[in-house]
């Protein structure tokens, strides 16, 4: 790695600006303490600042010594700090004016305003954390669900790094075995050589290809936990879509009337189920001869269906099936959907059997009435079991790679698969070794051992200033 480590001292406001209780200004770098001394007047005079101690006092204008705020200042000498550099944190009163004035003094006294993520970037460049941990800091900040928070926290703890480190060790081992095989292979007779290459293939499969495959499998589910799921309500007009939206949200979000065609545009909101964010879209009812506004709404319904993770197709069990249901079927078929047979409090004119015969023998059908609390809880449990009770969601210990890490793992796996093919043909063992080398490079990139400056810029630009 040959990234330039700048040795200037950086500073930023680390808390959101607003009328909060406290605000924090962070300073990191060799000049941190001397800058702080220029603008801080301690309550009791301090002979020499001790590391990891808190000091009570005032921030003063460096020139005029005018008091700006009463603060607590902490001094932490490197390397036992977030960035591994000397750090000072000023806990002051929050508020736009106060924070900005303190920041101004710090900059006047010789610090530079930090770029977004620069503190974490320094932690990475100084070797305190690897890239997967640095990314976890950003993920932690951006987490929208409890699971993704947990996943990010586990990355931050370095568990993912140990998993990748283990694979890197195994790759080393495999590579040296393959090189030995290349060097001494000619001394072996054909039978021995075969046994040797089968052994290598097995090691490759068991200790590398399979575990990498498992990491990749975690990605998809991880993405859902990280970003949440999109649930779309569809059906012909008047079947109770907006009523269901309202009960799931626990508020009157959409207008409900007994007139078909009430909802004309997509209504979007979100709620949580088992800590996972569910984005819910209520749509315009699909019908045969819509007026022009309605048909625009129906177009939007179709695009919502296209981006859905879960489709709930509502039907009114007090009405027989109609051509309009056929149209809904056209919109959802080929997708993963389930049917809710609503209005079960009314006399039935439609059975589960009717639906299965007409559309899909295997589709899950749940009978509900939006007005019945128990039915709604039943639906929530059903959704939880079907979509959120994945081994990953339950097994909090699973590690979820982010997209960049997934791509590195994918490339590593591809190289291994090419290597396996070559090894099977038995003729180009030198090339196998090259592929293993490629696989190793990509695994290194997961941890940031081999990444370029642009990539780092991309990663750290996701951070906010002060992190
Ligand atoms: N009896 C009974 N009526 C229901 C039930 N669910 C909804 N309704 C009624 O059905 C009518 C239509 O409900 P909405 O929620 O507006 O239906 P929608 O599918 O959103 O209709 P559009 O927006 O026109 O497509 C309203 O009068 C609701 O009160 C139910 O489970 N039982
Ligand atoms: Mg509606």
Overview of the structural elements:
This protein is of the alpha/beta class and 467 residues long. The protein folds into three domains: 10-130, Gyrase A, domain 2 (2-Layer Sandwich), CATH 3.30.1360.120; 152-225 and 398-448, Up-down Bundle (Four Helix Bundle (Hemerythrin (Met), subunit A)), CATH 1.20.120; 228-370, Rossmann fold. It has 16 helices and 13 strands. Strands 3-4-5-6-2-1-7 form a seven-stranded mixed sheet, with helices on one face. The radius of gyration is 30 Å and the shape is flat. The model has no long low-confidence stretch (mean pLDDT 87). It binds guanosine-5'-triphosphate and magnesium ion. The site of guanosine-5'-triphosphate has 23 residues, from helix 8. The site of magnesium ion has 6 residues, from helix 8.
User: What is the level-2 CATH architecture name of the largest domain?
Assistant: 3-Layer(aba) Sandwich
Beta fraction of the residues? Answer: 15-25%
The amount of helix comes to 40-55%
- Head-to-tail CA distance between termini: 23 Å
What's the mean pLDDT score?
A: 87
Number of helices: 16
Q: How many individual domains?
A: 3
Return the structural class: alpha/beta
Order of helices and strands: EEHEEEEHEHHHHHEHEEHEHEHEHHHHH
CATH topology of the largest domain, what is it called? Rossmann fold
Beta-strand segment tally: 13
Supply the CATH class of the largest domain: Alpha Beta
What radius of gyration results from the CA coordinates? 30 Å
What is the molecular shape?
flat
Residue runs with pLDDT of under 50 for 5 or more positions: none
- Give the spatial strand order of the biggest sheet: 3-4-5-6-2-1-7
Give a quick account of the main beta sheet: strands, pairing sense, barrel closure. Answer: 7 strands, mixed
């Amino acid at each position: 790695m040959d990234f330039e480590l700048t040795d200037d001292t950086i500073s930023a406001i680390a808390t959101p600006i607003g009328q909060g209780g406290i605000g924090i200004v962070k300073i990191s770098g060799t000049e941190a303490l001397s800058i702080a001394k220029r603008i801080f007047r301690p309550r009791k005079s301090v002979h020499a600042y001790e590391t990891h101690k808190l000091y009570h006092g005032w921030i003063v204008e460096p020139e005029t010594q005018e008091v700006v705020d009463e603060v607590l200042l902490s001094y932490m000498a490197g390397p036992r700090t977030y960035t591994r550099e000397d750090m000072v944190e000023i806990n002051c009163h929050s508020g736009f004016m106060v924070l900005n004035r303190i920041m101004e003094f710090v900059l006047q006294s010789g610090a530079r305003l930090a770029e977004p993520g620069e503190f974490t970037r320094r932690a990475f460049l100084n070797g305190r954390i690897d890239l997967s941990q640095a990314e976890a800091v950003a993920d932690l900040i951006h987490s929208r669900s409890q699971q993704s928070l947990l996943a990010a926290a586990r990355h931050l703890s370095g568990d993912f790094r140990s998993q990748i480190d283990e694979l890197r060790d195994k790759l080393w081992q495999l590579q040296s075995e393959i090189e030995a095989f290349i060097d001494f292979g000619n001394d072996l007779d054909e039978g021995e050589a075969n046994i040797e290459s089968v052994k290598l293939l097995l090691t490759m499969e068991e200790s590398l290809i399979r575990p990498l495959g498992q990491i990749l499998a975690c990605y998809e589910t991880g993405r859902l936990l990280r970003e949440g799921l999109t649930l779309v309500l569809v059906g012909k007009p008047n079947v109770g879509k907006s009523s269901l939206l309202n009960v799931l949200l626990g508020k009157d979000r959409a207008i409900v009337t007994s007139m078909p065609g009430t909802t004309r545009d997509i209504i979007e909101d979100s709620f949580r189920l088992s800590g996972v964010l569910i984005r819910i879209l209520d749509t315009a009812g699909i019908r045969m001869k819509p007026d022009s506004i309605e048909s625009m709404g129906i177009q939007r319904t179709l695009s919502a269906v296209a981006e859905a993770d879960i489709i709930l197709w509502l039907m009114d069990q007090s009405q027989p099936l109609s051509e309009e249901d056929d149209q809904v079927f056209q919109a959802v078929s080929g997708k993963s959907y389930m049917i809710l047979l609503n209005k079960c409090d009314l006399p039935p004119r439609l059975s589960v059997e009717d639906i299965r015969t007409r559309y899909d023998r295997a589709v899950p059908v749940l009978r509900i009435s939006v007005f019945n609390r128990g039915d709604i809880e039943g639906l929530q449990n059903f959704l939880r079991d079907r979509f959120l009770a994945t081994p990953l969601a339950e097994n909090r210990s699973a590690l979820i790679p982010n997209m960049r890490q997934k791509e590195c793992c994918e490339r590593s796996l591809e190289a291994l698969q090419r290597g396996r093919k070559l090894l099977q043909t038995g003729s180009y063992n030198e090339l196998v070794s090259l592929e293993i080398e490629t696989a190793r490079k990509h695994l290194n990139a997961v941890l940031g051992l081999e990444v370029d400056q642009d990539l780092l810029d991309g990663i750290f630009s996701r951070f906010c200033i002060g992190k």
